[in-house]
Amino acid sequence: MLILVLNAGSSSLKYQLINAETGEVKASGLCERIGIDGVMKHEIAEYRKLVIDHPMPTHKEAIEFMLNILTHDDTQVIASIDEISAIGHRVVHGGEYFKRSTLINKSVIRKIEELIPLAPLHNPAHILGINICQELMPGKPNVAVFDTAFHQTMPEENYLYAVPHEDYTEHHLRKYGFHGTSHFYVSGEAIKMLDKKDTKVIVCHLGNGSSICAVKNGKSVDTTMGLTPLEGLIMGTRSGDIDAGVVPYLMEKKGMDTHHIIDYLNKKSGILGISGISSDLREVIRAANEGDHRSKICIEMLCNRIRKYIASYTAVLGGVDAICFTAGIGENADLIREKVCTGLEFLGVEIDKKKNKIRESTNREINKDSSKVKIYVIPTKEEYVIAQDTYKLVK
Ligand code: AMP
Question: Could you say which EC number(s) this protein's record lists (predicted)?
Fold first, then answer.
């Protein structure tokens, strides 16, 4: 069964056409600069890469163009859109309402709309993507897969903030957590690799956006992102944890309004803000190797924060069987994995530096044989999870 997986952002659209039974990715790509000019990066089954400039004034033209590329001329991978059985949509915020993936109908769309105040940039784009798919591919089932759903098993004491309780009951103020499909997939793979009954797993999803999740017996019990993706780790451009007192201080000192301060903490901080070089860790590592002080400090800060959370989540779980690294940084940056694990020996974590340096795209173990805690590198497959959930719901 062929599933089209869509991740509609405010000016971008990521897609994959996946055979849900075999996991084969027939085509994938990214439409960027929607509403500006429009450029598509398209890949056919990992052997042919195309970059196409094409006007995309709205998401509708982007989706139409993608369907055209999939079905026509020498880029054709399916004869017609009839071969697509269903569409799986990544939806960032499902609030407390969506605890699992769901078939989309009018009331589901209304609910995703109601959740817009919790994800003002993301949920409107997802609704747009859903509406356009319903228009361009009438009659096909659409499924919503939520970033927040996996974390709905967190206990109250871990998701509540220490603020007046009525703001939770009246305004839904609480920790929700994100990257749920990734944490679900990676912890599931780790549990298979551990091959034991009771499991305590810590997943470090380290990409441009980063979060850590404590998973007990397959269920999320705590995670670093909060009401919004701003909380927790130091990320590409997000500050992560910060004293809330910073907000009024900066607003007064720099005459910032709410919009400015949100932009400052989400887009100008993190790796970019500390290093002053880039939000891309590869460039910062390069600069650090050339002696740049701010880049060196940035790497130390990044790793310290991850290490602190691993130690605190070990306490939350009452021990740890496996620490997993995933996403762009987690899968590729051996330096960061080594630095994070160095200093955690007191927990029984012993990294094998040689195994850590081997580059592979499959699940692998990088701890010493003597290590009490397994250290895994597990490439994440968020689109695969979305395709699987969609398949199960429409089958
Ligand atoms: P993601 O959001 O999962 O696509 O991750 C993107 C981030 O991964 C980029 O911003 C890079 O900083 C980082 N990344 C990818 N490859 C490497 C690498 N070899 N070393 C360090 N960072 C990397």
Answer: 2.7.2.1
